[in-house]
Request: fold
Amino acid sequence: MSGIAELRTPESSEQAAAGVLEIMQRLYPICRSITGDGVRRTLSVLGERLPLTLHEVPSCTPAFDWEVPREWNIRDAWIRRPDGRTLVSLAEHTLRVVSYSTPVRARMSLQELRPHLHSIPAHPDWIPYRTSYYREDWGFCLRHHELEALEDGEYEVCIDSTLQNGSLTYAECLLPGESEEEFLLYTHVCHPSLCNDNLTGMALMAVLGSALASSPRRFTYRLVFAPGTIGSIVWLSRNEAAVGRIRHGLVLGLLGDAGRLIYKRSREGRYDIDRIAGHVLGHQPFCAELRDFTPYGYDERQFCSPGFNLPVGRLTRSPNGEYAEYHSSADNFDLIRAQSLAESLRACASIITVAEANRRYRNLKPQCEPRLGKRGLYRAVGGQDVSQSEHALLWVLNQSDGTKDLLDIAQRSGLGFDVLAAAAARLAATDLLEAVH
Ligand code: ZN
Reply:
């Protein structure tokens, strides 16, 4: 398995993207929700790639203004037509049943059944994704043309589900680094058979985690696989005292469609993660976009709530609600491009690489230029063009007064981060430069 540095190359990221797709294929059929065995089965597949610690938080446990909901599990669900033929079934597609549907076993008229049926009139061939986590209800999701073709008569309905005290399951992978300061990566694991949102996030983060596990690490990495919204709220409620360790954070998800890569800034907008992601996305050969924070989206809403205001941004391609296939059966493998996954992996690996290498330095001989030649750092023959790496040595020495980091120097010099980081590493191996902090 390649490390983070290799993941930045097209060849290695394309190979890794194939691994992401393999995991997605295995996870696609599983009926997931915010709690229940679907999440546990999912985490056990991801656990084959990286060491995961499972946490089970009992139902009714308070978490700020929320509480852990009862655990939902489903075995079977179907509707039979008046003539006895099956209209829809859970076995055919996990989106067929409204997530968190309460158990039902009944015969009813179409008129009674109709309020429990959902469709997307604008896309009559797609099955919608619907949930009813916090309101007791049940329902089925149909293609609109199926709904329109329903005849009057008596329908037989079965939802073999349970909604009872149990627990909410999430998993963490902790990869210690030289520092106790943490880089938090978070993805939601609660969606059933939907590819971009969010099998891409789960699978890509697992592959990224396994690359991190085999790489040298300055920061400690904490990868959290948990349900959307309630998962991050519960996680924060259990880790409130420790969030001060979080130096950088990224919510990852929706990373495989053809849309451009988008970094959404933290609430503060000026944390290091915002500068790092801004720099990395600005220097990719593919299209990327930077957006300001909004209190709408995925779990960044919780990490960036005013009581936490953490340095956590979000990386997605087409975000929630901005592509037609969002939350429907059309968010399937047809929507996913291996190339997009590879680009997303490269961007994540670059963000991590820059975060690891970005630091402040102090020039130890700041009075006039030190002599680089006698330290083997400068070209031996005068009169040649000064190479980019030599420019980088001069920029790092000139700007390193202990207040500016390498990203500041990249910004000011127009030089790439990697060439500056390499220059800083060469200088730090001599008596000319030392890292601050
Ligand atoms: Zn979603």
User: Anything to note?
Assistant: The radius of gyration is 25 Å. The CA atoms of residues 318 and 410 lie 29 Å apart.
